[in-house]
Write a structure and sequence with these properties.
The protein is 4% helix and 65% strand.
Length: 199
């Protein structure tokens, strides 16, 4: 409902997913328009709840969300089970780097990636720069720590390390490798690597 005299409005909505890149079937929510044309609203589903503020004049949006479970997201021809939390994520639509600030925490599982079973990551965004820290649990045991930054001009600098000794032979067996002698082999190791690059 919109009041032409006060230039305000409010309403509820229902979105039925008929075939997008995620499998949340139904999203409901409410929205309000202020006299200054600021839009605020809520988002609700069986696995995700959140709120948003959109300012058409400044072409910005602020999003907060909490997951209540995992849902599937299709990307690049693969499907991922993801559970994200979002805090004060600011997007500026007329900027080269759309995401300007905020925090994203995500858990990802059932990955179709060799050796990796699950990922837990925290992304801090400031002025379009990303500081990322997280862990990757491996099939066969062990945890890989990931830390680094991606700048707004797409320069990457990351460190990867296995803080505890892992058995490489056990990892290979757990991921379907079965060559001569592997069944009795033990290959204890730790690892550390630094990765730099520009996209």
């Amino acid at each position: 409902m919109y009041d032409l005299k006060k230039k305000t409005g409010s309403g509820d909505y229902v979105l039925n997913n008929l075939g997008s890149d995620f499998d949340i079937k139904k999203i409901t929510g409410s929205a309000k328009i202020s006299p200054k044309n600021i839009i605020t609203g809520t988002v609700r589903s069986n696995v995700l709840r959140g709120n948003y503020t959109v300012n058409p004049k400044t072409q910005t949006a602020v999003v907060n969300a909490r997951s209540r479970g995992y849902f599937n997201v299709n990307y690049g021809g693969k499907s991922y089970k993801i559970s994200p939390d979002v805090d004060n994520l600011v997007a500026k639509f007329n900027s080269k780097n759309v995401l300007r600030s905020g925090i994203i925490k995500a858990r990802v599982k059932d990955l179709s990636v060799p050796f990796i079973k699950a990922i837990k990551v925290k992304v801090r965004i400031r002025n379009g720069n990303y500081r990322i820290s997280g862990t990757a649990g491996m099939n066969g045991g062990g945890v890989l720590n990931i830390n680094g930054t991606t700048t707004s001009d797409m320069k990457h600098s990351y460190s990867l390390n296995l803080p505890k000794e892992v058995d490489i032979a056990k990892l290979l067996r757990a991921n379907g490798y079965n060559f001569n002698g592997l069944d009795k082999a033990k290959l204890p190791a730790t690892a550390e690597s630094r990765v730099h690059g520009v996209k």
